[in-house]
Amino acid sequence: MTAPVFLADGERLAGPARSGSGTVVLDGPEGRHAVSVKRLRPGEEIVLTDGAGTGVAGTVETVSGKDRLEVAVTSVRTEEEPRPRVTVVQALPKGDRGELAVEMLTETGADRIVPWAASRCVTQWKGERGVKSLGKWRSTAREAGKQARRLRFPEVADLATTAQVAELLRDADLGIVLHEEGGDPLAAAELPAGGGIVLVVGPEGGVSPQELTSFAEAGGQPFRLGPTVLRTSTAGTAATALLLGRTGRWS
């Protein structure tokens, strides 16, 4: 099994990342998780990342108390921002299916996740509830990024309106709107070699005609995944996996 990944402060990683040697202290909540939950001990391997593409592999050198360990750096790895970059616009699902969608999208390899307040969403993020829900999505992406051994965690953006989603599609090299009546299968879409792909996943009630019109005017093209209709919490993952396989990012 590969070494576990923990999120570390970028400033602490900067020196060892440049030199390829030295030690890094991991403490606070991440240190507590490493010591008290994962029960890492001296001699065990570990990977520390800033979540932005830089990671250092090392060996636990010392453990102090319940939340502090020192890591002796053995190697450094840097991941460039992948191309094409995949942004998934996820309409708000009901209940905890939002966190499920974020978890699976992160594990699959999405680069950015944008929560979307579609007109047919049953769930609405307002006031304190919205702040709390967004925090859960970001926490889920962070934990899933570590679980997936990623060095570059996906950004979870602020809640977007339909107009803001249209702007994302306008700026994309390829804008995709998943729709069960889409004219072409996503498996046959012509994909860009670089730049950015924006993938829009509608709510359980579907993307409204007005939203489809707005997205089409912004360059968003309707595509279907296949003969079956997936739930909003799983459709984005299936589509992202298809795109990453076709672009060569999984090669």
TrEMBL record:
Q: Where is the Ribosomal RNA small subunit methyltransferase E PUA-like domain?
A: 26-72
Q: Which reaction does it catalyse?
A: uridine(1498) in 16S rRNA + S-adenosyl-L-methionine = N(3)-methyluridine(1498) in 16S rRNA + S-adenosyl-L-homocysteine + H(+)
Q: Name the enzyme's class.
A: transferase
Kindly state which keywords UniProt assigns to this record, in alphabetical order. Cytoplasm, Methyltransferase, rRNA processing, S-adenosyl-L-methionine, Transferase
GO biological process entries: methylation
GO molecular function per UniProt: methyltransferase activity
Keyword Nucleotide-binding, does the record have it?
Answer: no
Keyword Transferase attributed: yes
InterPro entries per the UniProt record, alphabetical:
Alpha/beta_knot_MTases, PUA-like_sf, RsmE, RsmE_MTase_dom, RsmE_PUA-like, tRNA_m1G_MTases_N
Query: Where is this protein localized, as stated in its record?
Result: Cytoplasm
Q: Which residues form the Ribosomal RNA small subunit methyltransferase E methyltransferase domain?
A: 81-243
The UniProt record lists the EC number as 2.1.1.193
Q: What does this gene product do?
A: Specifically methylates the N3 position of the uracil ring of uridine 1498 (m3U1498) in 16S rRNA. Acts on the fully assembled 30S ribosomal subunit.
- What does the sequence similarity comment in the record state about its family? Belongs to the RNA methyltransferase RsmE family.
This chain's protein is named Ribosomal RNA small subunit methyltransferase E
